[in-house]
Design goal:
There is one protein chain. This protein is an alpha+beta fold. Helix content is 24%, strand content 40%. The mean pLDDT is 84.
């Protein structure tokens, strides 16, 4: 991880990659979470946990590589290369054993050492 990346963001990405829902949850002082333009939203830690736990069985492994980032005041935007080996068929046609590759630019608002709001607008 880059040295100048906020510690909470590093912890979040590492825990997310490992499928450690509790570890991800510990990084967040949750106001709300948005994933995609309108796909998924969690307003509480309990809702976030449900979303994260529901996603786990779909992936045999996951990897996130931060390829770039910028922090200005509180928000940090990271560019992530995401790769996952599927453990389940996905509705849009990818099958078990195939590799899913995406890039994303999530925004993390960091306050008092925790992520106040992660926003993943793909």
């Amino acid at each position: 991880m880059p040295d100048d990346l906020p510690f909470a963001v590093c912890q979040y990405v590492d825990a997310y990659t490992a499928g450690d829902v509790h570890g991800v949850e510990e990084c967040i002082a949750l106001a709300d979470v948005r994933c995609g333009k309108t796909d998924v939203m969690a307003n509480t830690k309990a809702e976030f946990r449900q979303l994260a736990e529901a996603a786990l069985p779909h992936f045999a492994s996951r990897n996130h590589e931060i390829t770039s980032h910028i922090t200005v005041a509180h928000p940090t935007i990271v560019e992530i290369a995401y790769e996952a080996l599927l453990a389940a068929d996905l509705p849009h046609g990818l099958k078990v054993g195939q590799t899913l590759r995406l890039t994303g630019r999530p925004l993390f608002e960091v306050e008092a050492g925790q992520i106040a709001r992660p926003i993943d607008e793909r």
